[in-house]
Design a protein that fits this description.
Blueprint (H helix, E strand, L loop, with lengths): L1 H25 L1 H7 L6 H18 L2 E5 L12 E4 L6 H8 L5 E6 L8 H8 L1 E3 L4 H16 L3 E4 L18 H9 L3 E6 L2 H5 L9 E7 L13 H20 L2
Parallel strand pairs: 1-7, 2-5, 2-6, 3-4, 3-5
Antiparallel strand pairs: 6-7
Length: about 250
């Protein structure tokens, strides 16, 4: 039966990339204006949320937050989640409404035509093969946080193989959160791997559930505490994913 589904999967994947480009082309003048001044980033963030909703709805995805996101408007946070799909970025954007954030993302994505241009100018870019680049992330994050923005990092640092529930977390997100004394908000994306994984011949429309977890406070913590809160965040996300996969 899968043989007959291959053409549909190919069309579905191509349709995704079309949906990524359409709103960028339509909103292009507004996007250019929004990135011309760092103070206007919240406006860009609103446009990015429109872009994300357009893609998710166009792909036949609905989304539901199964719980309460305990966020204060205007406060800075460190948002983290498991990373399993290209739609993780879009889902994170639609979930967070009143706390504009910037992604910390890999350098390779800057090479994507058009998308890469805006990605380069709005995200904190890290070249994982360059130690100086990793250090620059801390300086860039400090600047963003000082301006009142939040930061989002997928702490696995990569997209794990399909059979891996959750890859080990890197230290960066937790060190940054402690250095800036901002709360960590762990989120579990429960359906993204099933709906639209990196495996090309896969995917289907449906509901994307997001499970927000209790925020992890960092006030008063020291750099040495990064390992303990990293484990706490890993365990809470891993356990929620295991429950879903066991059903």
């Amino acid at each position: 039966m899968k043989v007959f589904a291959y053409p549909l999967w190919i069309i579905y994947r191509i349709w995704f990339y079309i949906l990524v480009l359409i709103p960028i082309l339509i909103l292009f003048p507004f996007l250019i204006v929004s990135i011309s001044n760092e103070k206007w980033y919240p406006f860009f963030f609103k446009l990015a949320r429109i872009w994300s909703k357009f893609i998710l709805i166009g792909m036949g995805f609905g989304w539901k937050i199964n719980g309460k996101l305990d966020l204060e408007k205007g406060k800075s946070y460190m948002f983290i989640a498991n990373h399993v799909s290209m739609i993780d970025v879009m889902l994170m954007l639609v979930c967070i409404k009143n706390n504009p954030f910037v992604f910390v993302g890999k350098k390779e994505l800057t090479k994507i035509p058009l998308f890469g241009f805006f990605y380069k100018h709005t995200c904190i870019i890290v070249d994982r093969s360059d130690s100086n680049s990793r250090k620059q992330v801390y300086l860039s994050a400090k600047k963003k946080l000082d301006s009142g923005l939040s930061v989002c990092i997928f702490p696995e640092g990569l997209v794990p193989e399909e059979d891996v529930v959750l890859a080990n977390f890197k230290d960066g997100a937790f060190r940054l959160a402690i250095n800036h004394q901002i709360p960590i908000i762990p989120l579990s994306f429960l359906d993204n791997k099933k709906r639209f994984s990196y495996t090309f011949f896969s995917g289907r429309p449906g509901l994307l559930r997001v499970l927000p977890h209790i925020k992890i406070e960092t006030k008063g913590l020291k750099p040495l505490d990064a390992q303990s809160i990293k484990k706490e965040a890993f365990d809470v996300i891993y356990n929620s994913l295991i429950k879903v996969e066991s059903k």
